[in-house]
Write a structure and sequence with these properties.
The protein is an alpha/beta fold. The chain folds into two domains: 243 residues, Thiolase/Chalcone synthase (Peroxisomal Thiolase, Chain A, domain 1), CATH 3.40.47; 143 residues, Peroxisomal Thiolase, Chain A, domain 1, CATH 3.40.47.10. The chain has 15 helices and 14 strands. Strands 5-4-6-7-1-8-14-13-9-10 form a ten-stranded mixed beta sheet, sandwiched between helices.
Amino acid sequence: MDASEAMEYRPRRRRVVVTGLGLICGVGKTVNEVWDGLLAGRSGMAEIKAFDLTGHPVRFAAEVKDFDPLVFIEKKEARKMGRFIHFAIAAAQEAMDHSGLKVDESNHDRVGVHIGSGIGGFDVIEREHSAMLAGGPRKISPFFIPGSIVNLAAGHVSIRFGARGPNEATATACTSSAHSIGDAFRIIERGDADAMIAGGTEAAITPMGVGGFAAMKALSTRNDDPTHACRPFDKDRDGFVCGEGAGILIMEELEFAQARGAKILAEVIGYGMSADAYHMTGMAPEGEGCRRAMNAALKVASILPDQIDYVNAHATSTPLGDALESKAIENVFGDRALNHQLLVSSTKSMTGHLLGGAGGLEAGITIMAMLKQIAPPTTNIVELDPNCRLNYVPNTPQPAKIDYALSNSFGFGGTNGSLVFKRWME
């Protein structure tokens, strides 16, 4: 080809599909438990059981109840891992079982792992720091570092399944797992892998984790009513609720999935990123960075804003953040949003905020919404904030035609990510 042809040439984009899901959060420990709980409006929030609450101004969170890592991991090995790794392994196992993907000598170099976490092993860090203070440096466990660093979730999952392809971990605060899924999408799209185990995990319900967010005045203080504490878009919202868990997707190149007869759940068609470059914890005016991330995702997807039927909002129940994201959605989707044709909901109203694991969990929920053709609700809306003017699927699920959906994740440092999914209909 000549120079002009070379300039115009673009390699064919490989299509990326989702073939398996694994979800764990305060609402449930499997995909079906989580989905059924969301449709029922079941809250995962209750008084914290994980640690002594003496002196803590915030006494509740959305803990994963009755989770036993020994169902998935041998006791000797489990003791070497932080709780965030336990969640990642459990969710990855469900996702792999769901997908039917087998990693063997024929494909192990072409299957990778990309699992993010905003914080990693806070529980291990706190435990080992206490051990050092009590007994000196010799009391620090040799498994302190591998039990706590963020990339060990991806590392352990790759070891478990023998996945020898690209192995990465993203730590971009509350956008971590959305970035992991988006980056996995690009890895497959450009041909560096044929399948990726991707998503995020978090286990930050610890004395320092909850205490730190409380010190920032970021958390709801409704200790007397945890079930109704997380109130996205409601005029009386007063902060987010810490959650924990994991969300993992099995993502495959379309022809690779079809060749093995996989059941396809959805197609990943868009991924957008942006930075606010504005404030370390606050969002840019009018959600300008959020708007650019959504527009970037739509551009990659090659669809118009009017084609999106459902948005799973980042909305964490903070006074400023929800209103700014809502404004950004107005700016992207225009009259269709303001006329309540676009469905927008925040499932954090029930799951709490999984921080770095939120994007993975909510990507899975978004795919379930397309599969079931029903938008999960935003619970605890009593009276809308006048600055929040959209259809937030208040308190009750709404059956709807959902062919295209978008999931938002935004994090401290002004880091933003949006994912676009297409219903599988071929």
